[in-house]
Every structure is written in C-alpha cells, then in structure tokens.
C-alpha cells in the first residue's frame, strides 16, 4: 500500500477522507437495513468500494466538474455534495428527493445543484452523455471535466465504445471509470471479457488507461489527480479501472450466497478496504482507534437524524405524476 503522505494531502484532508468513507459505509448499511424492515423497496450497495470512490471524487472540483455516476456510487455522490438526507429521500421516493422527486428508482443519483447527472437503468448509457458534457466544455472553451463510472460487466455495452471513440477523436475532457468488482450480478469477470485488464482498452481509443487497486487510497487518488490535470489541460480523456470489492449481494433483491462460496465471502470480509484503510491510518499515525470510534458515533447520530427527517417528508401526490418528468 502506498503511504498516505505521498498523496500530497494534509493530515486534516486525510481525516476528512476517512470521515467520507465511513459516512458512506454507515449510510449504505442504513439503506440496506431500510429494505430489510420493509420501509423501502430496493437498494444497491457500494460497500467495499468506498475507499476507491472517495479517492476518485476528491481529485475533482465538484463546484464546476460534472459527475455522471452509476448506481453503486453513493459515497462518491456524498463527496460531490449530496447529503445523507438527499440520498435517503430518494430511497423513500419522497417529493423532495433531489435525484428525481421520487420518480426514478433509488440509487439513480442526480442533483442539478451539484452537477450530478442522473442515469438511466439501461447500463452505461451515462457514458455517451459524459462524452457530450465534455464536448460542451470544449465547444464553450470552459475548463470543466466530466467523470463517469460504470461496472466491468456494463463496460461491454456498445455505447461505451461509441463514447470512448468520440472522446478520443476529439480529445475531450472526460474520465471514464470502470469499477471492477469481479461480478455482473452473478456472472464472474472471466465470462465477461477476455483481455487481462479492462484499462488496456484505452489504447484502442488513443488515450491512456490505468488499473488501480481501489483499496489503495493514495494510488487511486494520484491516478485521478493526473488524469484530471491532463483532461483540464486539453490532453484528452483517460480510462481508469478501479479494482474494488462487492461485499454485498448485487442488490437487496438477490442472495449472493447462491453463487459465491463461503470461503470467498469470508476472504472478502477480511480484506474489506475500510478495515485496511483504518489500519493504515493507525499505523501511519493519523488517527487512534478511539478517535475513529468517536467519529463513528457522530456519523451514526447524523444518519439517524437524516433518516427521521427524510421519512417525515411528503410523498409525491398522485396528481403530480406527470410533473418533474419533462422540462416545463
Ligand atoms: C442494458 C442492460 N442490460 C442488463 C441490465 C440488467 N443489469 C443491471 S445491473 C447488471 C450487472 C452489471 O454488472 P457490472 O457492470 O459489473 O456492475 P456492478 O453491478 O457489478 O457494479 C445487469 C446485467 C441493465 N440494467 N441494462
Ligand atoms: Mg461488476
């Protein structure tokens, strides 16, 4: 694991990064729990990808850059400016849900205020949209960058080739990310692609590609810092493949114990990137166990309050069904 110090971030920034990671994990656990007690209908978890997502998002400037996420990116959306309450409003399908006012499925994150563009459930359709956002930046001579993510299974959709090819031709400021968690629902990655690394595909489009260990905060962060710097300087796109874990079932509606062995799940739990990051923080002198526990307590209280606040909000009325769907 690369030392945290070599990220170039201050001690305070590293501790804030940990807080963002832990907030993501605790909120994710809450969203899962809400499905289990029958209060919400559906959830897709990002547990196991939080370290990678925070390292990725911190390399951008959310006030001006655009994020076109996929359904597992809740923790990255928090770093981009959404709040736990915003996320929970979407799970409850409330009128004040910033993603879609309760019209979309949960996990289809969007926020006009924070430059987060909601995606369609048809996987990877956010990729050509991100190319379009980056094309707009180029045509308007603005220096914002578009970030878009997808899974390694979804990266095989035709739209991804179109998005990357056009972005390569025009040298657009877009960063394509594949969050490789080794599974597309129940299908293992060996059955999904034949190349060794997904990032090798970038060469075919004429831009750089890199695979990073998503549980290594510094390695991941530095890869994005470079890609963002190059994109902003007009040097064109990048493809970054982050190797991450999927600690849960694909969604709240399937059971991964049917297609993953007990040994595999035990090993995944032991290698949980959150635990590895905590160990690194202690070993490298950033935080003590007690400080982490105190932070955890605060975050749990924050998420309990966000849950209560969101649950108390109004549902959309049946008469408003057709509002919020098309521009007025
Ligand atoms: C075009 C399309 N095909 C199939 C689906 C159903 N589907 C939703 S998620 C998913 C698996 C995606 O796996 P991956 O891209 O590896 O992302 P992960 O869920 O592992 O993060 C599938 C097949 C879909 N939503 N859209
Ligand atoms: Mg996957």
Automatic annotation (TrEMBL):
It is an enzyme of class 1 (oxidoreductase). Keywords: Oxidoreductase, Thiamine pyrophosphate. It catalyses: N(6)-[(R)-lipoyl]-L-lysyl-[protein] + 3-methyl-2-oxobutanoate + H(+) = N(6)-[(R)-S(8)-2-methylpropanoyldihydrolipoyl]-L-lysyl-[protein] + CO2. The keyword Oxidoreductase applies. Its cofactor is thiamine diphosphate. Residues 308-328 are annotated as: Disordered. GO terms for biological process: branched-chain amino acid catabolic process. GO terms for molecular function: branched-chain 2-oxo acid dehydrogenase activity. The keyword Transport does not apply. Its EC number is 1.2.4.4. It holds the Pfam family E1_dh. Residues 24-318 form the Dehydrogenase E1 component domain. The branched-chain alpha-keto dehydrogenase complex catalyzes the overall conversion of alpha-keto acids to acyl-CoA and CO(2). It contains multiple copies of three enzymatic components: branched-chain alpha-keto acid decarboxylase (E1), lipoamide acyltransferase (E2) and lipoamide dehydrogenase (E3). PANTHER family: 2-OXOISOVALERATE DEHYDROGENASE SUBUNIT ALPHA, MITOCHONDRIAL. This is 2-oxoisovalerate dehydrogenase subunit alpha.
């Amino acid at each position: 694991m690369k030392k945290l110090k070599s990220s170039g971030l201050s001690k305070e920034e590293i501790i804030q990064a940990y807080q963002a990671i832990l907030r993501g994990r605790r909120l994710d656990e809450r969203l899962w729990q809400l499905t289990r007690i029958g209060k919400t209908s559906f959830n897709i978890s990002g547990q196991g990808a939080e370290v990678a997502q925070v390292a990725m998002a911190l390399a951008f400037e959310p006030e001006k850059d655009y994020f076109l996420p996929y359904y597992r990116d809740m923790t990255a959306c928090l770093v981009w400016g959404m709040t736990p309450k915003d996320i929970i409003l979407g799970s409850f399908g409330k009128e004040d849900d910033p993603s879609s006012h309760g019209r979309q499925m949960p996990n289809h994150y969007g926020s006009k205020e924070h430059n987060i563009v909601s995606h369609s459930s048809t996987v990877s359709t956010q990729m050509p949209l991100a190319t379009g956002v980056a094309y707009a930046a180029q045509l308007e001579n603005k220096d914002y960058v578009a970030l878009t993510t997808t899974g390694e299974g979804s990266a095989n959709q035709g739209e991804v080739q179109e998005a990357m090819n056009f972005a390569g031709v025009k040298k657009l400021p877009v960063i394509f990310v594949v969050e490789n968690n080794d599974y597309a629902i129940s299908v293992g990655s060996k059955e999904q692609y034949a190349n060794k690394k997904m990032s090798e595909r970038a060469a075919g489009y004429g831009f750089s590609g890199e695979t990073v260990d998503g549980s290594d905060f510094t390695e991941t962060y530095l890869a994005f810092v470079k890609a963002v710097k190059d994109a902003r300087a007009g040097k064109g796109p990048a493809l970054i493949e982050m190797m991450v874990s999927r600690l849960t079932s694909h969604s709240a509606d399937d059971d991964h114990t049917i297609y993953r062995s007990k040994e595999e799940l035990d090993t995944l739990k032991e290698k949980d990137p959150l635990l590895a990051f905590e160990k690194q923080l202690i070993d490298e002198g950033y935080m003590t166990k007690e400080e982490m526990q105190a932070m955890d307590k605060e975050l749990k209280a924050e998420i309990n309050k966000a849950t209560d606040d969101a649950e108390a909000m109004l549902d959309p009325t049946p008469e408003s069904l057709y509002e919020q769907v098309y521009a007025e």
